[in-house]
Design brief:
alpha+beta, 3 domains, three-stranded antiparallel β-sheet, 5 helices, Nucleotide Exchange Factor Grpe, Chain A, domain 2, three-stranded mixed β-sheet, 188 residues, 6 strands
């Protein structure tokens, strides 16, 4: 709009308002000012609500992404717990074979097969982030060890793990199964 047209429009408005009493003009101007203030307040409130909604949406998205990552990382937890007993039984089977039977020509292949199976399970555990918890000789850690019994010992500090009764395992950074241990205590 050119400057001349704007001036003409302003002049026309002034001419129309010339016949309106000043008191009425002031009331109407006040009402318009109040309405404008309300609109500004409403606009600011709407802006704040939009910001909060964006922040909440971002938080929900982050939580979902973390939940999805956790689900992927720990999906095999139940199966892993179940397969630990198979690994334990293989270990017990190997420990139960006397040294003279390990050298027997008839049983060498059987022992080699059991050992290969145990190595394969350990390899699969490693691929899936399942690791054995260190226990023997370490201080009792209630987050990783479960004390099953106390053994009097003059050689070890009280609270030190003396014996591992059952191996414990972690899956990535979470406890899969605590190590069942015997802990040293002061001799009587």
């Amino acid at each position: 709009m050119s400057n001349d047209k704007k001036q003409q429009g302003d002049a026309a408005v002034e001419a129309e308002l010339a016949g309106v009493p000043d008191e009425l003009l002031e009331k109407e101007t006040d009402k318009l000012g109040e309405a404008l203030d309300r609109l500004r307040d409403d606009l600011e409130a709407a802006r704040q609500e939009v910001l909060y909604a964006k922040a909440e949406t971002q938080n929900v998205r982050r939580r979902l992404e973390k939940d999805i990552a956790d689900a992927r990382a720990y999906a095999a937890t139940g199966f892993a717990r179940d397969i630990l007993s198979v690994s334990d039984n293989l270990g017990r089977a190997l420990d139960a074979i006397p040294a003279e039977l390990r050298e027997d020509d008839k049983l060498k292949n059987l022992v080699a097969g059991i050992e290969a199976t145990a190595r394969e399970i350990e390899k699969v555990f490693g691929v899936h982030g399942i690791s054995r918890i260190a226990a023997k000789g370490l201080p009792l850690d209630p987050n990783q060890h479960q004390a099953m019994l106390e053994v009097p010992s003059a050689d070890a500090e009280p609270g030190t793990v003396l014996q591992e009764l059952q191996s414990g395992y972690m899956i990535k950074d979470r406890l899969l199964r605590p190590a069942m241990v015997a802990v040293a205590k002061k001799p009587d």
